[in-house]
Amino acid sequence: MERTEQRWTEIEHLPKWDEEFYDVYTAKKFGKWVMLKTLKQQYKGVAEYETMIEKEFDTRYNLAHPNIVMINDYEDVPGIGRCIITDDVYGDSLRSLLDSGKVTEEHVKKLKTQFISALEYIQTNHIAHLPIRSERIIFTENIGNLKLIDVGFEQRPALTPEQASDDIRNFGTIVLETLNKSGVNDPQLRKVAERCADADSRRRYRDIHDLRLAIEDRRGNKLYIIIIAFLVIMIAVLAWLSSPYKPEIPNMNEIETADQK
Fold first, then answer.
1. DSSP secondary structure, 198-261, as one string
2. Which residue, among 154, 152, 24, has the nearest Cα to 88 in the 3D structure?
3. What's the CA gap between 218 and 181, in Å, rounded?
4. Taking the model in full, what pTM does it have?
5. What is the Cα–Cα distance from 14 to 8, expressed in whole angstroms?
6. Backbone angles phi, psi at 243, to 5 degrees
7. What is the pLDDT of residues 135-146, one digit of tens each?
């Protein structure tokens, strides 16, 4: 018993982090801070929910991405019960930052880069998940890195087009709210987010790849490169025509004389 107690110390319930079916705790495991997620008391021992948490562990255990909270283990913790153990991600959710008016340009920048990267990884690995909301986006306390929590409960052979489109819509909804409440001025990002959040899925971006290109404005850059290349070619042609090596223009009188002969 003494060895078990030393294994787990400073266990503390975090009610504001609780999820629909889970209670969330912070604790030290052998002196290292981790997070714990366990079924709420009313769901413990119920086969359906016990299977659910085990399936979530199996699905997320092999995920490895710097902007997704990693799962380390699934074990019994004294006084709490069977828990999913994850990396420590103590910090502020995007929701709390929005509500307290503390969103900065740096947070918006990470939505454009780290959030997109995490979504792309989830879709590439066909991870079915609950709708991503601002409550599930965490900015870590010291470094401010973006981390997604509660990101998957099942790995499938493929995601449906509707599931992929829902991720794009949720991205747009989150970004629009962030821009509106923070006052950060990013016209290109706003334009992209509005298209993502369109009620008509046919008007949204086709996939995360297209969304990433739009955010980076690489389509516009490509057109710019094509125009520049065309102008360079035209200048080269004009220079060649003005040079001593230009082709000689046939004398029309000589051509007519030759025809008459």
1. -SSGGGS-SSHHHHHHHHHTHHHHHHHHHHHHHHHHHHHHHHHHTSTTSPPPPPHHHHHHHHH-
2. 24
3. 27
4. 0.77
5. 16
6. -90, 165
7. 999 999 888 999
